[in-house]
Amino acid sequence: MQRFEIPDGLLPGTICVSYRKCGNPNCRCASGDGHESWSWTFMLDGKKRVEHVPADKLQEIRSRIEQGREFQDAVREVLAANARLIVLERQQVRARMKKR
């Protein structure tokens, strides 16, 4: 079996923004949109987790999630190609059997 390397630092899940009001009646958020707050949602040990993403880590986490998604997409493509090859092989065997 051929071995492959999984890049370090990949993350699963999604990242999204929400707007929260801080509760201070004198704050600008009291009469408008809330403060921007980013969260990362993912599954861990079969359970959904939601973690706050600090502003200084936003770009790093976002990039690692995107890289994780790209890796998963590439693996899915390889698996689908392998499945197609098996299907084609079986079709060829059946066609040869019919010719006999």
Notable characteristics:
single chain, about 100 residues, alpha+beta, three-stranded antiparallel beta sheet
Tell me what portion of residues adopts beta-strand conformation.
15-25%
**Overall spatial form:** elongated
Number of strands: 3
Number of helices: 1
Order of strands across the widest beta sheet?
1-2-3
Task: Please characterize this protein's 3D structure.
The chain has 100 residues and is of the alpha+beta class. The protein has one domain. Helix content is 42%, strand content 24%. The chain has a three-stranded antiparallel beta sheet, covered by helices on one side. A hairpin with a 2-residue loop joins β2 and β3. The chain is elongated and about 85 Å long. The relative contact order is 0.15. The mean pLDDT is 93.
Which helices and strands appear, and what pairs or packs with what?
Layout: E1 14-20, E2 35-44, E3 47-53, H1 58-99
Antiparallel strand pairs: 1-2, 2-3
